[in-house]
Amino acid sequence: MGCAGSRAKGDDSSKRIRKPKPWKHPEPITRTQLMKLREEFWDTAPHYGGRPVLLSEIWDALHAAAEADLTLAQAIVDSAGVIVQRADLTICYDERGAKYELPKYVLSEPTNLIDDN
């Protein structure tokens, strides 16, 4: 028997969230364009997967986590029962095994972000 806070080795739900690695958009993109991409993704996210019963709850938790600092994001996914497959949140699962994929552009800014001017 282990400590109350210990988890079994290999338990994916114990992964600590980290910032995504730097990435580059195929073309330079403005902050306004990035915000539009993010808005479009979150508006259509339920069509990307998940289970109908938990769909809104999990997507809402992932949306909140994507916009939060790392400590709060960890608390959000932990309390929602999200299983983090990749520590940068690009692949997660709900308790029943439904997969949720997040594009990097909702999690961080590209290295080739340009001014709107």
From TrEMBL:
Q: Which domain of life is it from?
A: Eukaryota
Quote the gene name from the UniProt entry. Answer: LOC115753789
- One Pfam family linked to the record: UBD
- Give the DC-UbP/UBTD2 N-terminal domain ranges: 15-116
Residues of the signal sequence? none
Q: Where is this region: Disordered?
A: 1-26
Q: Check the record and name the Gene3D superfamilies matching this protein.
A: Ub domain-containing protein, DC-UbP/UBTD2, N-terminal domain
The cross-references to InterPro entries, in alphabetical order and at most eight, read:
DC-UbP/UBTD2_N, DC-UbP/UBTD2_N_sf, UBTD1/2
UniProt-recorded name of the protein: Ubiquitin domain-containing protein 1-like isoform X2
Specify the taxonomic lineage.
Eukaryota, Viridiplantae, Streptophyta, Embryophyta, Tracheophyta
Source organism (scientific name): Rhodamnia argentea
